[in-house]
Amino acid sequence: MILKDLKRLKSGTDVRGTAVETDVPVTLTNEAVDCICKAFIKWLGVKTGKAKLKIALGNDSRISAERIVTCAKNAMLSCGADVVYTGLSSTPSMFILLKKSDFKCDASIMVTASHLPYNRNGLKFFTEDGGLDGNELDEILELAAEGNFTQGEGKYEEKSFMDEYSRLLVNIVERECGILPLKGKKIIVDAGNGAGGFFAEKVLKPLGADTRGSQFLEPDGYFPNHIPNPEDKQAIDSLSQAVIREKADFGIIFDTDVDRAACVDEKGGEINRNALIALLSAILLKDKKGVIVTDSVTSDGLTEFIKNLGGEHLRYKRGYKYVIDKCKEINANGGYSPLAIETSGHAAFKENYYLDDGAYLITQILISLSRQAKDGKSLTELIKDLKRPVEESEVRITFNDTSADYKSEGKKVIEELKQSAASQGFSVAPDNYEGVRMNTGCGWVLVRMSVHDPVMPINLESDTEGGNRKAALKLLKLLEAYPFLNTSNLKNFTL
Questions:
Q1: CB atoms < 10 A from the CB of 493, how many?
Q2: Is the Cβ–Cβ distance between 291 and 339 less than 8 Å?
Q3: Which residues pair with 18 in a beta bridge?
Q4: Which helix (H) or strand (E) holds 474?
């Protein structure tokens, strides 16, 4: 394949593309999967120095999974690599099996496109060092374009890891809280018809929880009930309603491949984004103070909350790999950072190989839920002092011509906003690791580039009612100077 076509499939550190033909053509073709997986084997052979490799291969519930798994399996077998197919799996489990199983695999591939629509799919690669970074993926795509793959005949077997992975999670909670610590608790799981349905049966029930009323646990790659995305309002509202309807004590929601999660309290109140970060900060900073690394769109109230816990809040770049790498850097340099987390629900703990694992995240919260209950307290008492903004908004503007160099255009806008901000009464914040964050007097505005798409997201936060609209009106005056931007969404927001 041509390199530029392969590069279009790169999405951060993953491969992603259209896998089912709808109103757009398929880009994640059999040919693409074949040459990328063969290139991965070639790249891994050089990296490890091994002539014989063994790869674990799993997938989430997407309807294109069977086709892509078959292509990936056959490609790697033809290169002489052995393949262990794990079936329906979570993305985090595909890394943990490299660390805590008898599979003895050199690497793993997860077939997933996270929360994207049903017609999309992709490939996520792991070695024992963790997920590949963007540069490593570039190397693989370049090898895919070159061809010249190794040839051989590998062995194939099927072996699930999910039971063993689930037991590891149960053990974590039992070590801290004893046997059946959730007995008497009713907990609702919403898996959104993704891969997370296992958590109700294989984790919560062994811990004693009553999971009756849990919903959308059956895998269905069309995602007929709601988008399996903890950030999606419809998804969270559906979980909240289920918790209230079932008179449950707690609710949990996962994204499709279970590397993200969020939750709701017994009243159906959302514990997500800033509140989720605050809750984890309260749990982790209780015994040892350190740095909580987040993405760029977190609130000023969260910064104050972490400071009052004796910790430090480092507001870094959007993109889970960025925050994870920053957390690693702090710890490698002699500091202490127990958590890297995005507002999207990607949470990576230092003590868990810096792996963004939604199920592990929830086990940490379940430990606190059990402990709080023993003391006669609710979980949300841990974040009662978190200052919440009056308004939180996100507006996404696009580019009129996505065939142009929109990344350079977006960078130009961001750099020039730093100079023109004062003309509309904004002041540029000192901690700009991504985009441009501007203080408004009653809140802030952040203009940045999307990690994956030709989109410029604008996040706004205000401590006063109507503050976001006022800030958007001022920002609109600045952005209308750029004819290559489609500012219609921002205009509509101000109406």
A1: 20
A2: no
A3: 120
A4: helix 467-479
